[in-house]
Amino acid sequence: MNRRARAAETEAALKQAAKRVFARQGYLNTKITDITAEAGRAAGSFYNHFAGKEELLTALLTDMLAEGDRAVAEDPTHSADFTDRAAVRWHIAAYWRFYRAHLPEMIALRQASMVNAEFDRRLREIMAADREDLRDHLERVPVLPGDPELVISAMYSLLDQFAWTWLAAGGDGSGRTLPDDEAIDLLTDFLYRGIAGSGTANSPT
Length: 205
Hints:
Elements: H1 3-25, H2 32-39, H3 53-74, H4 85-101, H5 103-113, H6 117-138, H7 148-168, H8 180-196
Helix pairs in contact: 1-2, 1-5, 3-5, 4-7, 4-8, 5-6, 6-7
């Protein structure tokens, strides 16, 4: 293995190790030595790839967002017609499964945004991009229950906090578990009926 291949392997190992440690103990409680120990690499090797923990998280977020964009672009079942329950469910399922798949990054970003202005800006940029997608999709709905910007805010807040509660925080304190499909269907019905009403032509009987 040549030097470039070894460097790429080490960088990938550090990223994967960081995700495991972030998931286990949170971003704020993670030290660089925790990451290198998890990766089985020398502590000094970290700085051959990243200037610090913040730069590593930025790299993870870049990878995460690129993967999300590819998944949407490559799925032929994607539809922007929010008068169709199936289209609403597709988006909620995509969001939920993306959140679960990238839980370490989502935990790290939320925690980092509380103490670092740059990550707070990144979080707001991600939210703004999601809201722009929702704005485009909601333009197809003839009558919304309120101001479109407030509808978007309500939808995003519900999805984000519900995902955080059940995927990151371990539930609502009741001790129950929530299967993914149950969560997705609950959110779909709640939002679909709120957006398009339950009496549209595409509503399931």
